[in-house]
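Backbone-to-sequence.
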């Protein structure tokens, strides 16, 4: 009798905490997606995204990312640019579009929409679509029309997206996801948890994600 037969019905649950504006979340999600796609267990992997707002005090008005980063660390734009360009090179090596000179804004409202996406099993897709707009340098990435367009393209009902954009729904869920992560000792994202046992802080390589998937799948405590 093969392992596949023995393990019929078995699944692997992967939970990821991330923020739309987090560069390493953007990169880590791409690598994790590749690892899942290449896994022989891909059809039996349940992937859940949890929101983690990195900076709740971030400005509520759209501002250039470079200006924000420079102010936050007390440096000049010229001083922070090399680090952003390094991340951009890494993102491009992973097949992602990454503009250093991109807009940023407090991510709370975007994360509320990710929570809406989770209600329809589309939170992961919606977050990645938002990140594609933000890191792709779209100056309208935070506008309601953009969020509506990519949400509908992901499969969400237009009227529900509009209602969340216009209201305050899911604000509590965003704060609860962050509180839960902090209670687990998570201080930064991305943070990946496999079967609620194997934690991976930060964005690791595709191979490391693949190895973690295999290790979690074979974990005897889940049999």
């Amino acid at each position: 009798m093969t392992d596949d037969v023995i393990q019929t019905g078995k699944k692997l649950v992967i939970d990821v905490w991330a923020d739309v504006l987090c560069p390493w979340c953007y990169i880590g999600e791409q690598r994790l997606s590749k690892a899942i796609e290449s896994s022989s267990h891909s059809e039996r992997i349940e992937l859940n995204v949890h929101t983690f707002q990195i900076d709740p005090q971030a400005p509520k008005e759209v501002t250039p990312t470079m200006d924000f980063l420079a102010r936050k660390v007390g440096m000049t734009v010229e001083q922070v640019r090399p680090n952003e360009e390094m991340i951009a090179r890494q993102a491009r090596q992973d097949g992602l579009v990454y503009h250093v000179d991109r807009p940023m804004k407090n991510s709370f409202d975007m994360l509320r929409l990710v929570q809406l996406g989770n209600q329809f099993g589309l939170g992961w897709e919606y977050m990645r679509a938002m990140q594609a707009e933000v890191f792709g340098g779209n100056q309208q990435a935070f506008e309601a029309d953009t969020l509506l367009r990519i949400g509908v393209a992901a499969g969400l009902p237009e009227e529900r997206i509009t209602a969340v954009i216009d209201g305050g729904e899911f604000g509590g869920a965003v704060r609860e996801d962050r509180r839960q992560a902090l209670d687990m000792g998570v201080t930064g994202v991305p943070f990946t948890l496999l079967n609620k046992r194997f934690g991976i802080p930060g964005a690791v390589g595709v191979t490391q994600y693949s190895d973690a998937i295999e290790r979690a799948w074979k974990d005897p405590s889940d049999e």
